[in-house]
Each structure stands twice: as structure tokens, then as C-alpha cells.
Design a protein that fits this description.
It is a single chain. This protein is of the alpha+beta class. The chain is built from six helices and 15 strands. Helix 1 runs antiparallel to helix 6. The longest helix has 44 residues.
């Protein structure tokens, strides 16, 4: 009976050892699997621009525009083409959609934005400069406006809204240069003006958008994102890019393009002449329209083998450390159990 008891106990101990070995193997395999899954997830989420195995380089860009098409002035029955209505700036273009003409002459007249009750109200403004001229410090009690010395409107202003603007197409040439790698990439975009407007304001038509912006210019950015990868061994660069359109005041919602675009409210042209009584006169044309500006975000990533091996070595070290900790923990637990 005693021998049977001893045999049963030894059999139980053998089963316990076998069970412990199975549990140990399962736990260790689970730890290994967890480390591998973690490494795969970490590698898949790494942005090449932030990975230590790559070097990210920003490019310098430049662009030029051409505006093609025609528009009609319904008042004077004049047809304007793209060159007549577009004015190029640095990496941007202004397209006139409406304009106001007025004849002005030098003299003293009311400043419409400076209200007053007495001369004291105007004197408190000092020599503040307005669009038309400089405040004199006198108040026109009849109109309750401060008098200014400068350009005064001598005839009613004429407002002209151009038609058939949806016939315009915009051609944008741009190129990006990565000086560190002597790489240059470029592309030509041809898009209709109506397509740009409707993509920025999808809830209204092209004509409705222009009608809502007769007194101010629409500032729209043409965003271009370039992403290039350089093969070190073959000395080849593979690039991809895509375009986006968005209104410039919402530029802060585009972190990649933050602070890289300028706004234009109006553009004006003038011509001067000497009128009756040798008074200097000028014809002033103030245009409103659409200001398109190029905003480019470009990166070139180059692979570095040493940094990549360092990253892989780090994962191997984590893998070995996890296995060691798992085995030590299980051995300790088995001893306590016994």
C-alpha cells in the first residue's frame, strides 16, 4: 500500500512537471507573439519622415500661372481675355471678376468712415491716413463727417460685374528642387476656374459664389503635396503628388501648409490727368476677384541602412529581454508552488 501511495505521488509530481512545462511554453510563446505583433504595428505606423532610418528633406518651390478664356463686360459690351483680367504675383495670380471705376480730383471732401459731431472729434484722429487722404481736423456739420484733404470722388462710381467667367481655365506650372540631392520634380496643372470654386464651395454654384463675393476677393490656395523616396543603391527617386483646393482663411486647418500663403483683398490701377482749373485728377479702377496662390509641401525620404539595422537591433533586444523576464517569472512561480 505504501509503495502504491509513493507511486501515485510520483505520478502526480510528473504530471505537475509536465503541466508546468506546457504552461511555461504557452506563456513564453504568447510573450514572443505579443512582442512580434507590437513590432509589426510599430513599424507599420512609422512615418518615413520621422523614422530614424530615413532622412527627410524639404524642397524649394516656384510656380507660374497662365489664365486662358474670355469674359464679357455687359455694360460696355467689351470682351476681355485672360491676359486682360489676370495679374501675376510671386507664386500666385489675381483674376478680376468685377471692378469699380471712379473719377477723383484733389480737394477737400468728406471721409465717409470718420464720423463726427464737432471739430474735436476730428482733431482726435490727428493726421491719420485713410484711403482718400488725410483728415484736416474739421467736421462737416451737415453730413457729420470729418473733412479730408486728398482724392475726392467727382462723379458717381460705376460698378461692373463680368460675365461668362466659368469659361476660364488656369494653367499652373510648378517645380520643386531638392538641393541636397540635386533632384528636381515638376508638374503642369490645367483646371477650370469653375472646378476650383465648386470644390472649395460645394454647397453652392459657381455664379452664386461670385455673387456673394462682389465686394471682396476670394483667396483660394492650390495645395500640392509631393512625397519622394530615393533608392540609395540605384540612385533613383520615385515621387507621387496630389492637389487640393481650399479657402485661404482656413489655412490654419491645414497643418502641412501653415503660414506659407499670402492674401490679397483688392488690386487697383490708376491713370492721372490735369483737369479744369489745373486740378489734378485720376481715374481709379478697383478690382475684386479670385486670388489663386500656390502652396507646396514637399518631402524627399532617403533610406539609411545603418539606422535601419539599429532599429531592427532594438526590436531584437526587446524580444530577448521579454523572453528572459518571462522565463525568470515562471521559474520563480514554480518554486513558490512547490
Amino acid at each position: 500500500a505504501q509503495e502504491k501511495t509513493i507511486g501515485i505521488r510520483e505520478g502526480e509530481i510528473g504530471k505537475c512537471k509536465a503541466a508546468t512545462q506546457v504552461i511555461t511554453q504557452i506563456v513564453c510563446r504568447l510573450v514572443q507573439l505579443g512582442v512580434v505583433i507590437y513590432a509589426c504595428i510599430a513599424l507599420s505606423r512609422i512615418d518615413p519622415g520621422e523614422d530614424s532610418a530615413h532622412k527627410s528633406v524639404f524642397g524649394e518651390f516656384d510656380s507660374s500661372f497662365r489664365v486662358q478664356g474670355y469674359a464679357l463686360d455687359p455694360v460696355y459690351k467689351v470682351v476681355y481675355d485672360g491676359d486682360d483680367l489676370s495679374r501675376e504675383y510671386e507664386t500666385s495670380v489675381f483674376i478680376t471678376t468685377a471692378y469699380t471705376r471712379m473719377v477723383q480730383q484733389q480737394g477737400i471732401c468728406d471721409e465717409s468712415r470718420a464720423n463726427c459731431q464737432t471739430d474735436t472729434d476730428c482733431k482726435s484722429l490727428g493726421n491719420q491716413s485713410f484711403i482718400g487722404g488725410i483728415v484736416t481736423g474739421k467736421c462737416n456739420l451737415a453730413t457729420q463727417k470729418c473733412l479730408m484733404n486728398g482724392w475726392c470722388v467727382s462723379s458717381p462710381a460705376e460698378f461692373h460685374r463680368l460675365e461668362t467667367m466659368n469659361s476660364f481655365s488656369v494653367v499652373m506650372d510648378h517645380w520643386v528642387r531638392f538641393a541636397a540631392f540635386r533632384e528636381v520634380v515638376s508638374d503642369v496643372l490645367t483646371v477650370s476656374l469653375s472646378e476650383i470654386i465648386t470644390s472649395v464651395f460645394p454647397d453652392r454654384t459657381f455664379e452664386e459664389t461670385l455673387a456673394s463675393a462682389l465686394n471682396e476677393t476670394l483667396n483660394i490656395a492650390v495645395g500640392v503635396e509631393w512625397e519622394c523616396y530615393r533608392n540609395v543603391w540605384m540612385s533613383k527617386t520615385h515621387c507621387k503628388h496630389h492637389y487640393t483646393y481650399f479657402q485661404l482663411p482656413s489655412l490654419h486647418n491645414k497643418p502641412k501648409f501653415k503660414g506659407r500663403a499670402k492674401q490679397i483683398s483688392t488690386t487697383a490701377s490708376t491713370s492721372y490727368a490735369v483737369g479744369p482749373h489745373k486740378v489734378l485728377m485720376r481715374n481709379l479702377t478697383i478690382a475684386t476677384g479670385i486670388h489663386l496662390t500656390t502652396v507646396v509641401d514637399s518631402k524627399l525620404y532617403q533610406f539609411y541602412l545603418i539606422n535601419f539595422l539599429s532599429t531592427v537591433g532594438s526590436f531584437i533586444g526587446v524580444f530577448i529581454a521579454a523572453n528572459t523576464v518571462a522565463y525568470l517569472f515562471l521559474v520563480y512561480c514554480v518554486k513558490i508552488k512547490r
